[in-house]
Amino acid sequence: MKRKKIISIMIGSFLLLQSLIIPRFAIAQSVTCTPIGGEKDSGVNTAIGCVPVLKNDSGTSFMAFILRWAIGIGGGIAFLLIVYAGFMIMTASGNPERLKAGQELMTSAISGIILLIFSVFILKVIGIDILGLGAFGFGQ
């Protein structure tokens, strides 16, 4: 039963992601678009916005787009976990196991959000400043 639930969640997640990434088509509508801060007609219009995939920059603008979305989704999940942990703590009713579980979840969610906030800074310091990957087109 648990395996069926996991498989159904995976299939549902795949279908949701697929419906967001597949380009939207309409009669007399151009498929290409101009991404924010990008070149004219260097993106594909999808349900989540203009995805920069047609620009000839070795995929750095596409990866920046995906990272922005991933950080946003991660922050949203961390926020929901903080709310759920607060609910667990408030409804513990003196049950020390439930109170401890809520505190652990709150600690984990807050540490995850701190890691998300500092991840871009850490990547810039390590990748560009220390390793010098800016010369290869990263971090522009």
Comma- or semicolon-separated keywords:
single chain; 140 residues; mainly alpha; three-stranded antiparallel β-sheet; 3 helices; 61% helix
Order of strands across the biggest sheet?
1-2-3
Q: Provide the gyration radius in Å.
A: 21 Å
> Helix count, per DSSP?
3
- Helix and strand content put the structural class at mainly alpha
Indicate the overall shape: extended
| Mean pLDDT reading | 79
User: Describe the biggest sheet?
Assistant: 3 strands, antiparallel
Structure summary, number of beta strands: 3
Helix content: 55-70%
Low-confidence stretches: none
Distance between the termini: 48 Å
Q: What is the string of helix and strand elements? A: HEEEHH
Proportion of residues in β-strands:
5-15%
